[in-house]
């Protein structure tokens, strides 16, 4: 393992692919389940603005970086641009299904501005923390087919493709953070990133549950039954929270690095099953 850049043979490949163009999805597109649909809709609504924030927070340091990290930042940015485009297309489908999403978009914009106002190093630390979230979510989603089993085919492919690329670039923001904080002592750097992660964890789930509630409210389902169903989905079957708990807690170890767990084989296996066709 090198100081920056992850495994020496790491490849970050931006795949220009499109999903679901011209397809009309049901309002409760996830097997008719409004609660699981709301969970994934709420996540998707964060991606266009969130990924733009991620890219800007990392690219700010691009002139100072050397290879291979410099090239990895560029590839990360391109992957995130494609992710934003595809989730924007999907989010339009969510709106076409009858959901009002402008309020959620505005709330996400305000959430992101709070991190922007905290300064460049905090922005970068927030990005690294959230990229850890997306990396461990991606691993769980690709490892357990129950997560996507009730998805329409195009949406299953969309989320698998996104997960593959999240695994590939999971160390880029973290390595950029290591570079940006290179003058801090190891203890101060560890304290910085763990404090940021604690705050990010609380705010991320508070905001996502807020957004899920706003979506459920539009269906007249913002009630105890729906929330119990969501808790069961996240904790028990398939249990995303349970599946990512160990990898999440690894962040708090002093010697943590995202690539201490090399799951490229999982991503490669998923890609082989997708037969992706690149867009022109």
UniProtKB/TrEMBL annotation:
InterPro entries: UCP07580
Pfam families assigned to the protein according to its UniProt record, in alphabetical order: Metal_hydrol
Keywords on record: Hydrolase
GO MF: hydrolase activity
Domain of life: Bacteria
Matching PANTHER family: METAL-DEPENDENT HYDROLASE
Protein's name in the database: Putative metal-dependent hydrolase
């Amino acid at each position: 393992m090198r100081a920056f850049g992850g495994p020496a043979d790491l490849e970050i490949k931006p795949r220009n692919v499109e999903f679901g163009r011209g397809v009309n999805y049901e309002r409760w597109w996830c097997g008719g389940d409004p609660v699981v649909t709301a969970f994934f809709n709420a996540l998707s609504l964060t991606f266009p603005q969130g990924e733009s924030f991620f890219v800007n927070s990392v690219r700010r340091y691009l002139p100072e970086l050397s290879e291979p990290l410099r090239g990895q930042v560029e590839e990360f940015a391109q992957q995130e641009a494609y992710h934003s485009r595809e989730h924007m297309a999907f989010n339009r489908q969510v709106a076409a299904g009858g959901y009002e999403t402008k309020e959620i978009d505005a709330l996400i914009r305000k959430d992101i501005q709070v991190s922007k106002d905290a300064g460049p190093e905090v922005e970068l630390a927030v990005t690294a923390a959230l990229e850890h979230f997306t990396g461990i979510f991606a691993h769980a989603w690709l490892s357990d087919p129950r997560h996507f089993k009730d998805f329409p085919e195009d949406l299953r492919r969309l989320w698998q493709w996104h997960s593959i690329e999240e695994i590939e670039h999971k160390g880029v923001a973290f390595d950029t953070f290591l570079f940006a904080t290179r003058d801090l002592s190891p203890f101060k750097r560890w304290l910085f990133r763990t404090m940021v992660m604690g705050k990010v964890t609380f705010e991320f789930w508070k905001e996502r549950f807020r957004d899920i509630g706003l979506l459920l409210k539009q269906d007249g389902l913002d009630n105890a039954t729906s929330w119990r169903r969501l808790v069961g989905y996240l904790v028990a079957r398939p249990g995303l929270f349970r599946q990512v708990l160990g990898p999440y807690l690894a962040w708090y170890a002093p010697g943590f690095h995202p690539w201490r767990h090399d799951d490229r084989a999982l991503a490669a296996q998923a890609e082989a099953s997708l037969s992706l066709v690149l867009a022109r």
